[in-house]
Every structure is written in C-alpha cells, then in structure tokens.
C-alpha cells in the first residue's frame, strides 16, 4: 500500500466512509496472512542445553503440527535437526527422513492437538508419552525416546533417538 493510499485510509477512518470499511478489511486480511508467522515466531531451530527433554518434544510436535510453515516440510527439517547423530545415521539424509515421516508417521503431521503425559527421566535417558488427535480426528499415541548428548557439538542437549507409535485400544478391545 503506497503512501497516498495510507493517507486516504487515515482520513477515511477519521471521517467514516465506505473507503474506511475497505481499509479495515485490507488491514484485517494482511494481519490474518501474517498470523501464522507471528504465532510461530522464533522457535528454537537447533539443539540447546537450555531445552529440557519435554521442551524438545513440545517443539517437535509444534513443528509437525504446522509442518508446511513457512515452507513445505519446514517442520520435518526442524525435527531432523533434533534427532541424535545415531538416529540420523540410521535414517539417512533429510530427504529420506522426510519420506519416512510422510509414510510411517503421517499421523504426526498437521495434527489437531497433542497432550503430553508426565515424562519419565532417568539420568541421560527420557521417555515422553504423547496422545494426539491427528488431522482426521483419530486418537494416536506415541512415545518419544530421548537421550542427553555428551559429545560436542551437542554436549548437554536433549535429542530424539526415536519415536514409537503405540496401538490405541478400541472400545471393544478395552473390555
């Protein structure tokens, strides 16, 4: 919006008119377009000793919930950054890791909500249970396996060794 348009919008707001309505609408649309960027601003993008095991899992879940913000598979790339070197050695480069997530862990992508169970931490190992509602509305359960690293460049950082999906019993199975 150029300077002359801004002046016209400002005077329209002051005196009220149809143009004021159009300016308000433009402002709301611009704000709505920026909202995902504002809400997801500045998550940690690399492992840090300042992050707890629980915070690492929360960060990964948030990234996968909004996987394609700000670009396609940005969430998966962030998750990959928090996987242990041993995990990366097994899963391969980011492109292969991304394919694995899309094929084997699609329930994590674009999920509606997630609830974390209390973490079980024993020294440098942690288990974090998660119940989530996937994008289709189904309940899924996962367990994140984490380790605190000791070697540089990840010394004292919590990182993910793996994620296991647990079978959720159906009502008929629960009896």
What does this 3D model show about the protein?
The protein is of the alpha+beta class. The protein folds into 2 domains: 37 residues; 122 residues, NTF2-like, domain 1 (Nuclear Transport Factor 2, Chain: A, Roll). Helix content is 45%, strand content 20%. The protein is built from 7 helices and 5 strands. Strands 1, 2, 3, 4 and 5 form a 5-stranded antiparallel β-sheet that branches. Helix 1 packs across helix 2. The longest helix is centred in the first third of the chain and has 22 residues. It is globular, with a radius of gyration of 22 Å. The N and C termini lie far apart (63 Å). The N terminus is likely disordered.
Could you give a short description of this structure?
This protein is of the alpha+beta class. Helices cover 45% and strands 20% of the residues.
Give a topology summary:
Blueprint (H helix, E strand, L loop, with lengths): L2 H13 L2 H22 L13 H13 L8 H8 L3 H7 L2 H11 L8 E4 L3 E3 L2 E9 L5 E10 L9 E9 L4 H4 L1
Antiparallel strand pairs: 1-3, 2-3, 3-4, 4-5
Helix pairs in contact: 1-2, 3-4
């Amino acid at each position: 919006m150029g300077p002359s348009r801004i002046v016209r919008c400002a005077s329209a707001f002051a005196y009220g008119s149809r143009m004021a309505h159009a300016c308000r609408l433009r402002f709301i649309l611009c704000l709505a377009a920026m909202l995902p960027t504002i809400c997801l601003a500045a998550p940690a993008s690399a492992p840090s000793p300042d992050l707890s095991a629980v915070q690492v899992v929360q960060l990964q879940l948030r990234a996968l919930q909004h996987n394609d913000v700000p670009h396609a598979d940005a969430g998966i790339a962030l998750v990959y950054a928090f996987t242990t070197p041993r995990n990366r050695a097994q899963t391969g480069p980011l492109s292969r890791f991304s394919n694995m997530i899309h094929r084997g862990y699609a329930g994590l992508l674009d999920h509606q909500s997630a609830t974390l169970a209390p973490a079980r931490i024993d020294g440098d190992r942690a288990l974090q249970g998660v119940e989530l509602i996937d994008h289709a509305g189904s309940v899924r359960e996962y367990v994140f396996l984490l380790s605190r690293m000791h070697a540089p460049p990840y010394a004292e950082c919590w990182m993910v060794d793996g994620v296991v999906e647990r079978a959720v019993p159906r009502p008929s199975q629960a009896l």
